[in-house]
Amino acid sequence: MYVQVYSRGDIEYLYNGDFFHGHKEEFYHNYAVISFCDRGTEPCDRVDYSDICSRVMYIEIDDLELGDLKEEGYTYDTFFPEANEAAEFIIDAYKNGMNIICQCEYGESRSAGCAAAILEHFYHNGITVFTDYRRYPNRLIYHKIIDALNHREERVELHMHTNMSQAGVSSVEKLIQRAEEIGLKAAACQRNILY
């Protein structure tokens, strides 16, 4: 999955050129867009992706930092309630093998924070967005999205004791059978060998 950051101007430049129209079919089915705009932005003032992309999520959220929350009437918990919906959108795009474009007005804060969270969650390299001198990733957006992504991550139980250790009573076969019964996709057992 490619994760790209664009400003409104970049997207409009590409849209008015031949890039999207020359690759319209490929782009339409293989890309998902998360478009950030300020609260209260009229739909007619947003970037219109309807001709070039089948999956678009518009998020109206002001570009605030932690120190601005109280003054604007938010707490960390009440800021960006759409983060869970964004995480579901991102995971769905990932599972469908889609690339993601993160776009905001200038392409340096909200969209960069979102892209960093996606890259960190799936590839553990979100730091590359933070070290890009052209970007100023919004840390609140980053933390809200990565928290929501991590919360939705499927977990696998990796700690079991078999009858090969003093703490366990079940055989490996019975543990595997039980894991299948409850729908675990993976499990691991550690075998201690004492010399």
Q: Mean pLDDT, nearest integer?
A: 85
Order of helix and strand elements from N to C terminus: EHHHEEHEHHHH
**Helix proportion:** 25-40%
Q: What Rg do the Cα atoms give?
A: 22 Å
The number of helices is: 8
Q: What is the strand content?
A: 5-15%
Runs in which pLDDT lies below 50 for 5 or more consecutive residues are none
The major beta sheet can be summarized as: 4 strands, parallel
Structural class: alpha/beta
Tell how many strands the DSSP assignment holds. Answer: 4
How would you sum up this structure, described in words?
The protein is of the alpha/beta class and 195 residues long. The protein is 38% helix and 12% strand. The protein has eight helices and four strands; from the N terminus they run E-H-H-H-E-E-H-E-H-H-H-H. It has helices at 8-16, 19-22, 24-30, 83-95, 110-123, 127-130, 139-152, 172-181; strands spanning 3-7, 31-37, 55-60, 99-104. Strands 1-4-2-3 form a four-stranded parallel sheet. Helix 4 crosses helix 7 and helix 5 packs parallel to helix 7. The radius of gyration is 22 Å and the shape is globular. The relative contact order is 0.15. The model has no long low-confidence stretch (mean pLDDT 85).
Secondary structure layout plus pairing:
Elements: E1 3-7, H1 8-16, H2 19-22, H3 24-30, E2 31-37, E3 55-60, H4 83-95, E4 99-104, H5 110-123, H6 127-130, H7 139-152, H8 172-181
Parallel strand pairs: 1-4, 2-3, 2-4
Helix pairs in contact: 4-7, 5-7
